[in-house]
Amino acid sequence: MRNPISETVQQLQPSGIRRFFDVANTMEDVISLGVGEPDFDTPWHIREEGIYSLEQGRTFYTSNAGLMELKKEIVRYLDRRFHLPYTPEQVLVTVGGSEAIDIALRSMLDPGDEVIIPEPCFVSYLPCVKMAGGVPVPLPLEEKDQFKLTKEKLLSAISDRTKILVLPFPNNPTGAIMTENELRQVAEIIEERDLFVLSDEIYSELSYQGDHVSIASLPGMAERTIVINGFSKSYAMTGWRLGYAAGPEEIIKQMLKVHQYVIMCAPTTSQYAAVEALRYGDEDVARMRESYDERRRFLVKELNDMGIPCFEPMGAFYVFPNISRFGMTSEEFATRLLHQEKVAVVPGSAFGGCGEGYLRISYAYSIDNLKLALGKIQNFIDTLF
């Protein structure tokens, strides 16, 4: 029998995050600090709108591109929060931000086109590039630069085949952000080299150093940028599976074709709930952001105090402490911590080669859970000396 599996897919590595947590899920009483999921419930008024939509029998397909009512709210939201002037025709509602990333790459890449992917980063970018026929070009970022993308690093990675730069800020797993001045330097190179940007801004509302700045808001960049965003992180709506892309209409139209064939439309109930979130959810976002900020500051201080160096992240809800001094790989450290103390964190190597020597720890958990886990981490490192 011939091989029924695509060679491209067969060569993909399983998610380093899921592989690790498949082990953790077989154990009892594990304290998990690994999953990137808010510990808040979706705010009640948003859930209530979803329930109401079901009670009203709104169980039909929406337009492929999404409810017009929702797209208009997304346009208003992006304008008032990030100064991004789009029209509804420039917005596509997707099944989470992950679908938006996938279909953007499939719509923009031809075989052999190169995509620069700053690492450490979200695990989906590299396999999505490969499945779209592109060539991923990992670009290692460094702690000495606070894991920011510098002008010099970007220039070093560009070739004649480069077409897209993935801009993953605020960053998962490092929590790094890019300021407006830093983005301007990147934008200059993007224009000079005639490149496009896939700007993943799913954590845009979780910035602790002033408001998030989108590269698409800079002069000349809107026509070169696809902005990816969604509702999972900001509104604690992970299971509602709703995201969106905004960008040049000519690119959005091609993304819509792929979306039509593989998805049809995003969940109708989720779309009605999302309208409510955008209209009346600002206070919910602010409340959750304030809580994350408290946890962020607490966790960074405690890790540094126990001798695990941790630079201060300014976005998302992760810290990325350096455990290289313990003489173990990140996977070995995380595995031993899991089995000895039943605390689950993610090895930094799951996010690219330059993540080796680090751990990703999520603070999308209560202070009480963080305190309990930190006590166990202290017990673990005490056994190493």
What order do the helices and strands come in, and which of them pair?
Layout: H1 7-10, H2 16-24, E1 31-32, H3 44-55, H4 68-82, E2 91-94, H5 96-108, E3 114-119, H6 125-131, E4 135-140, H7 151-157, E5 162-167, H8 180-192, E6 196-200, E7 225-230, E8 243-246, H9 249-262, H10 268-280, H11 282-305, E9 318-319, H12 330-341, E10 343-344, E11 346-347, E12 359-362, H13 367-382
Parallel strand pairs: 1-10, 3-4, 3-5, 5-6, 6-7
Antiparallel strand pairs: 2-8, 7-8, 9-12, 11-12
Helix pairs in contact: 3-10, 4-10, 5-6, 5-9
Q: What structural category do the secondary elements indicate?
A: alpha/beta
Assign an overall shape. Answer: globular
The rounded Rg comes to 21 Å
How many helical stretches?
13
Number of strands: 12
**H/E element string?**
HHEHHEHEHEHEHEEEHHHEHEEEH
In percent terms, what proportion of residues is strand? 5-15%
Written description of the protein model:
- This protein has helices at 7-10, 16-24, 44-55, 68-82, 96-108, 125-131, 151-157, 180-192, 249-262, 268-280, 282-305, 330-341, 367-382; strands at residues 31-32, 91-94, 114-119, 135-140, 162-167, 196-200, 225-230, 243-246, 318-319, 343-344, 346-347, 359-362.
- The protein is of the alpha/beta class and 385 residues long.
- The strands form three sheets. Strands 2-8-7-6-5-3-4 form a seven-stranded mixed sheet, sandwiched between helices.
- The model has no long low-confidence stretch (mean pLDDT 95).
- The chain is built from 13 helices and twelve strands.
- The chain is globular.
